[in-house]
Amino acid sequence: MPLSFAPSGTATIPLHILAEDQLEAWLDTQPDATRNALTSQGFTGALGQTVSLADPDGAPALAVAGYGTAATRQRGRFHLAAAAPKLPEGDYHLVSDLDADALSAEALGWLLASYRFDRYRKQSPLLARLVAPQGIDAPRIEAQANGEALARDLINTPANDMGPPDLEQAARDLAAQHGADITVITGDDLLTQNFPLIHTVGRAADRAPRLIDLRWGDAGPKLTLVGKGVCFDTGGLNLKPGASMALMKKDMGGAAAVLGLAHMIMATGATVQLRVLIPAVENAVSGNAFRPGDILTSRKGLTVEINNTDAEGRLVLADALALADEDDPDQIVSMATLTGAARVAVGPDLAPYFSDNPAFVTALETAAARVQDPVWRMPFHTPYEAMIEPGIADLDNAPKGGFAGCITAALFLRRFVTESPYAHFDIYGWQPTDAPARPKGGTGQATRALLAALPALLKS
Fold first, then answer.
1. 3-state secondary structure 422-435
2. In this structure, are residues 163 and 207 in contact, taking their beta carbons and an 8 Å threshold?
3. Can you list the pairs that 433-440 forms with residues at least 24 positions away whose Cβ atoms lie under 8 Å?
4. Does the record's keyword annotation contain Manganese (predicted)?
5. Which of 81, 101, 239, 254 could be joined to 109 by an S-S link, Cβ 3.0–4.6 Å?
6. What is the distance between the alpha carbons of residues 412 and 33, in angstroms, rounded to a whole number?
7. pLDDT for residue 354 is more than 60
8. Cα–Cα distance between 387 and 182 in angstroms, integer?
């Protein structure tokens, strides 16, 4: 079911948002019964506290939710999403002095809190529904929530039901929803159309590799999103240990993120010529799997020595990025669950990104802070270029030494974009523990920040 606000005009329950330093003044305006009820239940305005008061017939009459202090709010985000599951069933309208940005973030968090992944098991719905607060762009927030829900659904689906053909179908469904054009190159046609790295990585699997190419919009700047679509990663002949394979259904998280972002862009009617490229493969093990020591020639003509078949994501992205660059777009953005090194560096909550464009950095980080979608800049450190040059070939897909793994991966990708502005996001795509509006499982990262930054990023 789409994530949406409750219809306006219905009978609603007021939900008062009270920070700790606002509580006493608010209580002074309330009847004694309200003051006594909140006092008896120990309500202090602490973050996450909720109290619901009933009318004489037992129906909810009003509710309050604690908004804590500025210090406690800085320790997380989507604070009302923690309160929503504690409220009785009904439609609520917010009563608060939050500014438009904070209201938008809290409203989005409430919608995201109603997300349920129920494909394999029935889930209890969120009973408290929110009426869109005045002063926010409700359709835009719904578009963001549903783009995020799409990304979550794709990542959460196990690989037996989310292989390359299923990822293609998800892209086709999205294209049909928004009137976009889509073409797909599959199997050995990848070789005849010069996508050798995508074919090589995916050829060992029963489900054929493919390149998904979605286009939408005929006016405005040209934006190309490239998402890593490794639907399952065994590591290939450099086989992963079992524990490291457990979450590899999420190795198509970059593809999920760009499809979620594409939904947001198309649903909000942005003036942009959008292209989405997804190399969709499984990195499997069989007699025709590619081998350590192989030297492969990419679409761009650069040769790559394979020193680890488990560094396959950068290979499939390389061919897709070369194609993207040939179209001379105004901005290329790649998103991928690419390296463990990025997780070690910044953990699961931050989305590390690489860009050499100061205007891109400023626009993205300003937007990320405003929409509470955290990012962290990493360096395209050019002196490390030597680390990805093995001597026997132009590039090494897995430099030895263990240093700067996410940086060398990003430098590898940058070699395939020579004509267009380029930014790369090395995301995790997974929420390891439950948090407000972010249940354990698949998650989009940096998509809302990119959406908010688009006007500044794509100035003609």
1. EEEEECCCEECCCE
2. yes
3. 435/76, 435/78, 436/76, 436/77, 436/78, 436/79, 436/80, 436/81, 436/82, 436/109, 436/113, 437/77, 437/78, 437/81, 437/108, 437/109, 437/110, 437/112, 437/113, 438/78, 438/112, 439/115, 439/117
4. yes
5. 81
6. 66
7. yes
8. 38
Q: Look at the chain and report how many structural domains it folds into.
A: 2
Whether residues 115 and 216 fall in one domain: no
CB atoms within 10 A of CB 120: 10
For residue 165, give every residue at least 6 positions away whose Cβ sits within 8 Å of its Cβ, in sequence order, or none.
207, 208, 210
Residue pLDDT, tens place only, 68-110: 999 999 999 999 999 999 999 999 999 999 999 999 999 999 9
Q: Name the pTM for this structure.
A: 0.97
CB atoms within 10 A of CB 307: 17
Do 229 and 265 lie in one domain? The reply is yes
- Of 136, 154, 176, the last residue of a domain is 136
Residue 381, classified by CB atoms within 10 Å of its CB into exposed (0-12), middle (13-18) or buried (19+), is: middle
Dist CA 367 CA 302 (whole Å) = 36
CA distance 40 to 61: 18
Residue 209 lies in a domain: yes
Who contacts 106 (Cβ-Cβ below 8 Å, separation ≥6)?
Answer: 17, 78, 79, 80, 81, 94, 98
Helices (H), 157-221: 164-178, 189-192, 196-202
CA distance 230 to 251: 5
Handedness of CA 344, 349, 353, 359 (dihedral sign): negative
Which distant-in-sequence residues (6+ apart) come within 8 Å of 111 by Cβ? 3, 4, 5, 130, 141, 142, 145
CB proximity list for 177: less than 8 A, separation 6 or greater? 263, 266
Containing structural domain, residue 289: 141-457
**Catalytic residue positions, numbered:** 240, 314
Do strands 395-396 and 222-227 pair parallel, antiparallel, or not at all (unpaired)?
Answer: unpaired
- The reply to whether 299 and 230 lie within a common domain is yes
What CATH number did the domain enclosing 77 receive? 3.40.220.10
Last residue of a domain, one of 136, 156, 171: 136
Cβ(229)–Cβ(164) under 8 Å? yes
User: Is the Cβ–Cβ distance between 232 and 313 less than 8 Å?
Assistant: no
pLDDT single digits (tens) 308-320 = 999 999 999 999 9
Q: 111 and 183 share a domain? A: no
Q: At 354, which amino acid appears?
A: F
